[in-house]
Amino acid sequence: MRWSQLYVPTLRQDPADADAVSHRLLLRGGYIRQLMAGHYSLLPLAVRTRAKIIDIVRDELARIGAQEFVLPTMHPAEIWHKSGRWDVMGEEMFRLKDRKGADLALGMTHEEIFTTLAQELRSYRDLPQTWYQFQTKFRDEPRPKSGLIRVREFTMKDSYSFDLDEAGLDDAFNRHHAAYTRIFARLGIPAIPVQASSGSMGGSASVEFMCPSDAGEDLIVRCTGCGYAANVEKATSRLAPVVDAPPLDAPALDAPEPFDTPDARTIDDLARLHGVTAEHQVKTLVYAVDQQLTLILMRGDHALVEQKLIDTLAATTVRPARPEEIQAALGASPGSLGAVATSLPGSADLVIVADEALRGRTGMTTGANRDGVHLRGVDLTRDIAVGRWADLREVTAGEPCPTCGTALDVVRTVEIGHIFKLGRKYTEALGVSVLGPEGDRVVPIMGSYGIGIERALACIVESHHDDKGIIWPTSVAPFEVALVTLGKGDEAVAAAGQDLYKQLTSERVEVLWDDRDERPGVKFSDVELVGIPYRITLGARGLTAGTVEVTVRATGETTTVPLAKAVQYVRALVLDADE
User: Model-level pTM?
Assistant: First the structure.
């Protein structure tokens, strides 16, 4: 391809609204243009890279026996009602009506639709099956940002496995895990597999593949000692033991004792004004969980992870209670709330869920459900009717690994892939069954496995760039080699460039010939910006000497090579990079 014929609208300045490295460089390099918030046009260079990403994913899925489909992006509401997810998906689902008034949705994911096709499976002999597609998905993100990382319209590779039993699902899950590891290695993405919450997908287990990036919105916890890794929504850690000392060095109390705290509205206030450290306080949060007011008890120095609460209670909707709801139920304002049985209003019908860090604690301090009053000497077992214990707290950096005790790291990441063991949630809801080997009806068990294609493209840039621009791995670069000819109107150089271009093309090297009538600095800057892995520079001086310069984009190393051997030399570089 000649650069003079290719549409590459590079920009000299960083766009003002580009907040992520990949967003900035893909805009500057002429790869993408924004139509509106969360919707991007992919330009020719991006289309070439996207196709290579898809080819790598397709190749690895073929290795595990997956079959490619293409399913509709518009779905009837009826199927989503059957699975129970029409309401669960909430405002992120694009919904519309057709001219007859029928409810429709733009697909966020395709579990329901693939499962509908699975209704035609008849016998255990039809299993296992692994089906996949590359399809556009739609999510009404409230705050699209970071270019291709958080959008409202994107391409997803989603695959689905159908097996007769749990052993089959385990095998499908493990095969996808291995395939994903190979995919991300070939793409040049430093993916970290982590334990994760299944969220609205449901199922018994899930693993996310996360790319470290400052543009990410997901935090993961990982251990450099044993390899433990989990999304912060799933992570846990060991806690240092805490000594339960009686308040103010007095004997342990037989019952909670009220004391005035007129100016203490926060955990820090209580510590500063009354000497009660945060680890000896019970923080009481009030949430509406599926419209049921629920008290969430946390240690004063711990933060709640809402997804852990959702997973614990299998909740559909969770939100902090409004001040008027709290006042009506508990008779006090936030800052003086508690769950001690004797302090709760008699009419309060509240569920109490407590974090495991509070189990067995004594000598604690909490709100008395009277403004400006707290209770000390609280024994969690004796004084609070906890309905459910669960791990609800957020793990922080430096806490000991739950497996080996090494200090944990917290890393900001972008999710680039997610694999789920779905179980039978969808096959049961949609009436899928096959004739089993014993003649009985058996409901197949499912797995679901996704990779965001454009997000992967962005994460490659997040992982491979410098202050000059993108540095594509050869496996996904839009072109493997850039041929830059120098000298305006130099017919000899142009002829030699034409000959070199033809030779490279005949050797199946993907070459972009910068034949533009531009200054050398402009050409070099553009090649570096768009990230072509190798650059061949041919000018009048080199032509006279019978040489070209070959520059490696990743290292900046330049080698002088005889013109007659340039094709062979560059082709070897490309082949070595692909291995």
Answer: 0.90
